[in-house]
Amino acid sequence: GLFDIEIFKADGRYLFNEMNWRNSAVCFAAAASGVNYPVYWYCAVTGNDYQIHKPDTYGVYAINELLDFHHVTAGEVSLGQWLKDLKNSKAKAYYSKTDRKPMNRRLAMFVENRIPFRNK
Predict the structure, then answer these.
(1) Alpha carbon distance 53, 100 (integer Å)
(2) What does the pLDDT read at residue 12?
(3) Roughly what angle, to the nearest 10 degrees, separates helices 79-88 and 65-73?
(4) What is the DSSP secondary-structure string of 77-101?
(5) Which candidate, 78, 64, 72, 65, places its Cα nearest to that of 29?
């Protein structure tokens, strides 16, 4: 949804962990299928009527590029299949043709975290 609330169950009790006042990680996929969480939230809290339409969930592919790339490095998916899935995805978590900086930075961090550094 629009915000993330983390609640855990431990020893039969529900414990509040945290609330993030930003969009959850899956909002990019929801937006690609036609769900507008901010409008839905605004209408709900102001008492305005809104129509919830059935999103196009069957024809929309979404991918979190870096999390999904783990399947390639684990040998579960071929690089070719991953590239095909990336190309066919309407929604991407990081990549945008108009703003490549987030994806470039995340890729750099991904590579930096996997290179063994040695003190000389």
Answers:
(1) 32
(2) 94
(3) 160
(4) S-HHHHHHHHHH-SEESS--SS--H
(5) 64
Contact 43, 36 (CB under 8 A): no
Q: How far apart are CA 49 and CA 51, in angstroms?
A: 7
The answer to whether 18 and 6 are in contact (CB under 8 A) is yes
Count of C-beta atoms within a 10 Å radius of residue 92: 19
Coil, strand, or helix at residue 41? helix
Report whether 58 contacts 82 (CB < 8 A). Answer: no
| Number of residues in the chain | 120
Q: What long-range pairs does 42-48 form, CB within 8 A, spacing at least 24?
A: none
**pTM for this prediction:** 0.59
| Per-residue pLDDT at 108 | 85
* Inter-residue contact 74 to 102 (CB < 8 Å): no
